[in-house]
Amino acid sequence: MIDPRTSVITERLAHVGRIVAVSSGKGGVGKSMVATALALSLAREGCQVGLFDLDFTGPSTHIILGTPSNLQPKEKKGIVPPNFEGLSYMSLVYYVGDNPAPLRGADITNALIELLSVTQWGTLDFLVIDMPPGIGDAVLDLIRLVRRIEFLIVTTPSLLAFEVVKKQVSLLCELQMPIVGVVENMKMDKANDVQLAVHKLGLRYLGAIPYDAAVEAAIGNPQKLLETAIGQTLGQIKKASANQRGKPHFL
Amino acid sequence: MHEWALAEAVLKSAEQVAEKENLREVTEVTIKVGELQQIEAPILRFALNQLKLGSFKKAKFRILKAKSTLKCRVCGTIWEFSFRKLDKAAAEAIHFVPEVAHSYIKCPKCCSPDFEIVSGRGVWLENIQGVKSE
Fold first, then answer.
1. Which class does domain A5-240 fall in?
2. Which of A12, A72, A107 would you mutate first to test chain B, the one with the most B CBs within 10 A?
3. Whose CB among A25, B46, B75, B103 lies 3.0–4.6 Å from A99's, allowing a Cys bridge?
4. Residues paired with residue A172 on neighbouring β-strands, in sequence order
5. Do A157 and A123 form a contact (C-beta atoms < 8 A)?
6. CA distance linking residue A84 with residue A82, whole number of Å
7. What residue in A sits closest to B112 (Cα-Cα)?
8. Which of B4, B117, B126 comes nearest A1 by C-beta?
9. Where are the domains positioned within chain A?
10. Which residues pair with B26 in a beta bridge?
11. Domain that holds residue B27
12. How many folded domains does chain B comprise?
């Protein structure tokens, strides 16, 4: 017996320009905030952007975006993600609501294959993926199923976070996966240890996002999120690295 | 329709098998559909017939239904899934992503959501028959 679903995944993503997985070896570093702010910021610039919450057991981008509970995908030769705040937005939350989703590895793989094979993303400039923490099933499956994925790594200044991130970087390098760079989130001082360590790894240090207490109050309000240090810093990083056509090319 | 996306996947996958097996004409494709996903067989068949091209033009589609068996990882209880016990919203959610069954179904004996979907999960390509190229 053959599982037919994987045969159409490449086709489903055929009209998606860049696929960027916002990822970190460690949890709690602000991946979902960065992924959401990045997607919103790109959309505000006129790019066609999708946001896919791949943290199946702990999704949070719907809370950050403040999506209404009745937001649902449409059925049209598959599943068409609804547009919210200029984003084609996909999450398992549409199907589990407020219920917990206690999924083991094989279930995560199956749910990922199902969503990748039936979601009709259409034409996008960027598909931003909010990854679960770690280097487990979701990361390995994405690498296996979506070969042209690129990783944007998020860390904090904490040694605890960065040491785990280093292991993730090591794995991604070994698998020859492109890493667009590292963002240092929640920075509270001027120390440049992480920046130096990132350079030592041969990666691009994209910038530091200062710790901003206002981020908590911006949850559920996309415009406010873009006005926080996360939104502002990502905007500056994009501007500083924009190519000649004005398109952000740090991604 | 969700079944259309699955039909596309079945045909794409069947095309790859036909090519590998050097079939110039495919006469029959057998598909197994697990009860858990509650795929509408007539819609799936309609989509397959609408989408078939080339060497599949004369292909017939045999759709077999498979019972869905679940096994509790905590107490070992094995039971058969029945969507009649679910409310409409839960049944629809499982139709789209069968794994969300873990959010709605519990072991009938110990109430754990930690169970294995032993059989009858989704759509499988079971067999392809056709005429080989000379």
1. alpha beta
2. A107
3. B103
4. none
5. no
6. 6
7. A102
8. B126
9. 5-240
10. B130
11. 2-132
12. 1
Largest Cα–Cα separation, chain A? 58
From B109's Cα to the closest Cα of chain A, the distance in A is 18
CATH number for the domain harbouring residue B94 = 3.30.2320.80
Q: Is A8 in Cβ contact with B102 (below 8 Å)?
A: no
| Option in A2, A8, A108 nearest B125 (CB) | A2
* Nearest chain B Cα distance for residue A111, angstroms: 6
**Is B5–A117 a contact, with Cβ atoms under 8 angstroms apart?**
yes
The one-digit pLDDT tens for each residue of chain A (251 residues) are: 899 999 999 999 999 999 999 999 999 999 999 999 999 999 999 999 999 999 999 999 999 999 999 999 999 999 999 999 999 999 999 999 999 999 999 999 999 999 999 999 999 999 999 999 999 999 999 999 998 999 999 999 999 999 999 999 999 999 999 999 999 999 999 999 999 999 999 999 999 999 999 999 999 999 999 999 999 999 888 777 665 555 555 55
A78/B17 Cα distance (integer angstroms): 23
Question: Using CB atoms, which residue from A7, A75, A110 is nearest to B99?
Answer: A110
| Residue B68 Cα to chain centre, angstroms | 11
The residue assigned the tokens 């120390």 is: A191
